[in-house]
Amino acid sequence: METSVKKPAYVMYAIGISVWMTLVSCSGSTYMFPLLPSVADNSTYVIAQQFFYVAAFFVTAGAASRFGPLKPHALCHVTAAAFVGAVLVSGAVFLLGHTETYVLVLYGLCVGVGLATGFIQWIRIVAGKPFSEIKSLLFIASFVSVFSSIVFCFVSVEFRVLIFGAVLVPMSLVFLYYNTRLSGVQKPGHAVSRGKDGVRRVFADVAVPLICAIALILIAPIASSAYVDTTGQDLFRQLLAQAANLTALLVLAIIMIGFNRNVRLFGAYCVLLPLLSSSILFAPLLLPDQRWFVLFLGDISFCTVSFLMLLTCCATAKRLDVSVVVVYGFFGGFVYLARFPEIALVLAPKASVIPIESFAIAALLLYILTIPAFFLPYLRKKESGDWKRAMESFTTADVSRACDFLSARNKLSQRQKDVLKLLVTGRDIPHISESLCLSPNTVRTYRKALYASLNVHSKQELLDLIEHTMSVADETC
Q1: For the domain 391-476, what is the CATH code?
Q2: How many whole angstroms from its chain centre is CA 104?
Q3: Quick check: helix, strand or coil at residue 39?
Q4: Mean per-residue pLDDT of the chain
Q5: Measured in Å, how far apart are the chain's first and last C-alpha atoms?
Q6: Domain extents for the chain?
Q7: What is the pTM of this model?
Q8: pLDDT tens figures, 254-289
Q9: 3-class DSSP state of 14
């Protein structure tokens, strides 16, 4: 159940997650800030970090799905151990000069596991809050992360090591533990994913946004190969990435906060994938050092996917009444797994010139990926029709019982409860207005408040929630 937080608690959440995102920028999650000397083979560290980062997502999700809720501080302990290990290994590399492969793999393991488990724990912390607070917290943390990354572009590696080990790691862990205790994340013994059926529900619910996210992430290898002249331009590349992240966040903030409109991964997919495909097709007409706009659009896509992925996982966990650890673990694991082709291309030796045929083939493949975007709405409409037909098999008592359960769980007022029951039985605004003796605008206001309380964004999502609630009630009986 969503609960609003008091202002002091909200401030602590905002500070804590902002410090965490700053740590992420400093510790090298983008591979632009590895805390290793220049003589070290960074490719070994990058591969190890990404492998253990993805593995940690799947392992955590699998453990929560198989064995039930994780203890409130379990992920905090893993994160603390991982980052302490990263600090020790990084210090040993600089002080003792050890750059052997096993040392770099160990460093990648520590950073990868620490980043993954810390992210999942922070999502656990914020997932129980109202959706408006989740959005604002993530926006605050994301903007702080971008600005801190810009600052670190001008800081030497040695000084970043000092900040990383002496300031950011201790502060991040303190805030992580404190906010975990403050939030009261799910205690052991509560129902989480309802076994295999819960996992199936998760995959069914996130199938469309997951496909869209993976398709957008697969843009990165082509964007990386398009920009082949990176010699001596590391600072430019880093600043370009942060400018793209800032642009993506500003656009999302204007739409989601300024205009109070929801942005979904499906919508981002429909806009960004054709745009990127066209830009990559246009890139061969320019010189290699003039193709920066392809990377810019690719970084915008990655930032957009990362932000919307967090919101999608929180919304899915609320709607299906499952653990956000399961949802975010599986979703994040598959999305970040799709980055491996990018890593292979970035680390592989690049030819000075890439034939135009490569771009043409890449753009053609991307356009093929774009085509389903224009058919998915029809599939969703078909699903809606199938649901309505399936609803006919449920009795009025079933629907009413589901509405009563949701009303009690979310503390809806009696009038909201009345509107809910009429909405899910297919009544339109004029009918509800006449039945309850309310003006149409008042009914729309109640409907908007209902959607916010139940964390749904459309009538279809409301109907899906009712169907899920009825099935849960049947399992419980």
Answers
A1: 1.10.10.10
A2: 28
A3: coil
A4: 76
A5: 21
A6: 7-374, 391-476
A7: 0.74
A8: 988 888 777 888 888 888 888 877 777 777 777 766
A9: helix
User: Which of 258, 262, 324 has its CA nearest to residue 2?
Assistant: 324
Res 35: pLDDT: 56
Q: Are 18 and 168 in contact (CB under 8 A)?
A: no
DSSP 338: T
Structure tokens at 241: 């990435």
Provide the token pair at 258.
Answer: 């300024």
For residue 27, which of 138, 220, 173, 139 has the smallest C-alpha distance?
A: 173
In which band, very low, low, confident or very high, does the pLDDT at 333 lie, cut at 50, 70 and 90? very high
Residue for token pair 């656009």: 251
Model confidence at 382: pLDDT above 60? no
The CATH number of domain 7-374 is 1.20.1250.20? yes
* Closest to 319 (Cα-Cα) out of 72, 2, 10: 2
Q: pLDDT for 68-116, tens place per residue?
A: 778 888 999 999 999 888 878 877 777 766 667 788 888 889 888 999 9
Radius of gyration of the chain measured on its C-alpha atoms: 24
Burial of 220 (0-12, 13-18, 19+ CB in 10 A): buried
Which whole number is the average pLDDT over 419-444?
Answer: 80
Place of tokens 């009630």: 473
Task: Judge whether residue 241 has pLDDT over 70.
Answer: yes
pLDDT at 394: 47
What letter would DSSP give residue 71? P
Q: What is the DSSP string of 348-387?
A: S---S---HHHHHHHHHHHHHHHGGGGTHHHHHHHHHHHH
Query: What torsion do the CA atoms of 427, 433, 435, 438 make, to the nearest 10 degrees?
Result: 150
DSSP 187: P
Asked whether residue 221 carries a pLDDT value surpassing 50, the answer given is yes
Query: What token pair was written down for 271?
Result: 């806009």
Kindly state the tokens that stand for 313: 């996982």
Number of H helices and E strands in the chain, helices first, is 21, 0
Q: Could you give the C-alpha distances from 38 to 32, 233, 286, in angstroms and in order?
A: 12, 16, 32
CA-based nearest residue to 251, from 322, 304, 172, 174: 304
pLDDT tens digits along 341-356: 777 766 666 544 455 5
